[in-house]
C-alpha cells in the first residue's frame, strides 16, 4: 500500500437518548460507497487517533467512519458514571449505523474500541460484516488496567486541579505544529475532572467485554492484532480471543508502536481484510482459522 491518495472527509453529528438524557456524538466520514468501516478509539483518546488508518482504508475504496464515543473527543461528556459502559458504547455504534443508513459495517477499534467492537457483534450480530480488533482488554489485562486507570480516577475525583492544570497546559499548544501522535497525546490530556472520573468509573464497575461464551458465539470474520510486551494489552488476550472466535485471523504486530510509526504492513492487512469482508456475500463466508506473523 503506497501513500494514500486524497479522499473526501466530512464531519457529522447525531444524537442518542438514554435514561431521559439526550447527548450529541460527533464523527468523521472518509470516502464514500456502501462498503462501510467504523473505527473506534482507545479509552480517553479522540477519534482522530484513527485518522491515518481511516485515510488509508478510504484510499482503497472503503467508506470509513471514525466516532467519538460518549465522554470522548468532541462528543458530549456527561459526568454520570451510569452513562458509560461497553454496552452503552455498542448501542451508540448501532445508532451511528442507523443514522448513516448503513445496514452493516466492518467494525474495529483499539483497546476500548476493540472491546466495544466485540460488544457490537454480541448485541447486534446482523449489523457486523467483520471485526478488526487491536489490543483487546480481556482476562489477562485486569491487574494492569487497574494500576493504569485507578490513579486517573482518583486524581479526577479528589485532585481535580491536577486534571484541570494539565488541560490548561496542553490545550493551547497548536496541534498543527507538533508531530501527529504528540497531538493525539495532547488531545487525550484535554479532560475535565467530572466526566473523566465518570468514564473510568463506568468502565471499572460496568461490563467491560462480552463473556468468553458470548465471544465464542460471534461468527463474523475477525482480524485480531496483538502486541508483544504490552502489559495493559497483553498479546495473550489477543491470542486467546483469536482462539475463541470461530472465524478469526491472528496477526502479531512487531511492537506496540508498529501501527503508529510504520503502519504500512498492518494497514495492508486491515485493508485486505475489510475488502475481503465486503467482497464475499455474508451467507458464503466460511469459518477457516488462519494465523499470520
Helical amount among residues, as a percent range? 40-55%
User: How much of the polypeptide forms β-strand, as a percent range?
Assistant: 15-25%
Largest sheet: 9 strands, mixed
- Give the averaged pLDDT, no decimals: 92
- CATH architecture descriptor name: 3-Layer(aba) Sandwich
Annotation field: number of helices: 11
The SSE string, one letter per element, is EEEHEHEHEHHHHHEHEHHE
Instruction: Tell me the structural class.
Output: alpha/beta
CATH superfamily: Alpha/Beta hydrolase fold, catalytic domain
Low-confidence stretches: 286-291
User: What general outline do the C-alpha atoms trace?
Assistant: globular
For the termini, the CA-CA separation is 18 Å
- The structural domain count equals 1
Task: Give the total of beta strands.
Answer: 9
CATH topology: Rossmann fold
Structure description:
Helix 2 packs across helix 3 and helix 4 (142-158) crosses helix 5 (160-170). This protein starts with 8 loop residues before the first strand and ends with a strand. The chain is built from 11 helices and 9 strands. It has helices spanning 51-59, 86-100, 112-123, 142-158, 160-170, 180-188, 193-205, 212-216, 235-244, 258-261, 264-279, and strands at 9-18, 21-30, 36-40, 63-67, 105-110, 128-134, 222-226, 248-252, 290-292. Helix 9 (235-244) links the parallel strand 7 and strand 8. It is of the alpha/beta class and 293 residues long. 41% of the residues lie in helices and 19% in strands. A 9-stranded mixed sheet has the order 1-2-4-3-5-6-7-8-9, sandwiched between helices. The protein has one domain (9-139, 210-292): Alpha/Beta hydrolase fold, catalytic domain (Rossmann fold, 3-Layer(aba) Sandwich).
